[in-house]
Amino acid sequence: MPPRLLITGSRTWTDRAVIRDALRAWWDSTGRDPEAILVSGKCPKGADKICEEVWAHNGLTLELHPAKWRTPDGKQDMSAGYTRNKAMVDTQPDHIIAFIMDKSGGASHCLRYAKGKGIPFTLYEDSTSTT
């Protein structure tokens, strides 16, 4: 089974270099497995978007989990992001990298849920790293 990396991050994240370096470091740790998979929530801006662009640029596989913000009857589902986060974590990735600005609620939720499942993680807050 190929290694799987889940990323989560703030919509306001803009530091492309930190993301590029973090993804490269994780990919290097897999022995540069060409089948490595990036699991992402497909937010159209911020960390998700940047991670997806960097990953795709290197010809690697994306597994996208966009939130379903509208119910079948057209109502807005305010918990869709949290539901999506749980679904991504429940795919049992090997590692999670979180890029969190200003204590982003959605990305912080995803990281907390992953930590509760015992998934190893790396956290970048406002461009600084902790593990």
Automatic annotation (TrEMBL):
InterPro entries: YAcAr (IPR019627). Keywords: Plasmid. Pfam families: YAcAr (PF10686). Residues 3-70 form the YspA cpYpsA-related SLOG domain. This is YspA cpYpsA-related SLOG domain-containing protein.
